[in-house]
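User: What would this chain look like folded?
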Amino acid sequence: MGESLRYALCTQTVTLYHPDETTRQVVRTVLQGVFLDRRVKLNHTETGRQLAQAFLLVIPARAGQPDRDYTLEPGDRVLEGAGPDLAWADWPAFVPAAVEGLCCVQYAAPKILGGQLCHLEAGGWWTRSGSGAHSLTN
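Assistant: Here's the prediction, encoded as structure tokens.
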């Protein structure tokens, strides 16, 4: 049933970065045929309005299966295009404030239709002050 859905906007390539503390390696996975939307949003807080960076990533099932082809969890990173390999020692500095276009994952949610995975949706938002899911230095 999931294969009957169309993902016409899923034409981009992204690199997923997942830190594996057991092996002390950063697992890098390049996926093609996905949709990544990066944007600025306006948050309304108790102290006023604040600009924040946000992103939405859609990974159709045909681009890869979670836990088989890739891992994506809160705290992982997403970079548009085919990104570089990353050493474990470089992970702490691999943050949006230091890397243009880098996104920090706040949530990853599989979307199921008819008992089958259609796509995985991931996203997050952050501000320079540190409010939201992650600060730009996190």
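The CA atoms of residues 22 and 82 lie 25 Å apart. If you want, I can go into more detail on any region.
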